[in-house]
Amino acid sequence: MLAFQFISGRHPFGNGSSQAIAHNISNTKAMDAYEITPKLPNELCDLLNQLLQRKKERRPADAATTARKLKNVIIALTQQEILAQATLPIEQLAKPKKTAI
Asked: Is residue 67 within 8 Å of residue 38, measured between CB atoms?
């Protein structure tokens, strides 16, 4: 829940009193990370949604698994940033100038 709140700025089970939120946690499904924060990468939304699953077998097995998944999200974002950078074919790169001695 904390990760969802830190990233989205909202509680995954709605607003209201602590009693209302406790009721929602027990009786309703958490908000979908895709709907709350549509600009987030799909991989991060998937992880947030997995962390909020009621059934243990649908959540990451442990903190190490969660950390690995989060690291993979960071790697994917970095790769996307690199691929989005403007590049030039090698033939268009400036050749170093020869200096006369």
From this structure: no
